[in-house]
Amino acid sequence: MVLIRVLATLLVLQLSYAQKSSELVIGGGECDRNEHPFLVTLYTAKSKKVYCTGTLISPEWVLTAARCDRKTMQIKIGMHSKTETNEDEKMRLPREKLFCLPSKTYTRWDKDIML
């Protein structure tokens, strides 16, 4: 019984000292617009929801995880915020050619790559 009271007290103390997520990175801050133009987001074509991210490795190729493969997807380049539009954002449709392993038996840490 005493142990439960001690644990409950510790939990309440921990929650009372909780910080906002913006304060969790020491010395961190929001990056400037267009500071990372090589980062891309992958959206479902119908719902427009982000389901994956990737890196632009050349003007025509995005490197992402193989589990991000969808029949219909859209690629957004240059997005800084989900709520504010950026005049430098570009929306692209992927070409027909996707390169990933033919088998979907990859594990969480093995062979999970797609171009």
UniProtKB/TrEMBL annotation:
Stretches assigned to the Peptidase S1 domain: 25-115
GO terms for MF: serine-type endopeptidase activity
Output the InterPro entries linked to this UniProt entry: Peptidase_S1_PA (IPR009003), Peptidase_S1_PA_chymotrypsin (IPR043504), Trypsin_dom (IPR001254)
Q: Which Gene3D superfamilies match?
A: Trypsin-like serine proteases
May I ask which residue range the UniProt record assigns to the signal sequence? 1-18
According to its UniProt entry, this protein's organism is: Causus rhombeatus
Q: Does the keyword Disulfide bond apply?
A: yes
Identify the keywords attached in UniProt to this record, alphabetized. Answer: Disulfide bond, Hemostasis impairing toxin, Signal, Toxin
Under what name is this protein listed?
Kallikrein-Cau2
Annotated GO CC locations = secretory granule
| Domain of life from the UniProt record | Eukaryota
Single GO biological process annotation from the record: proteolysis
**UniProt KW Signal keyword:** yes
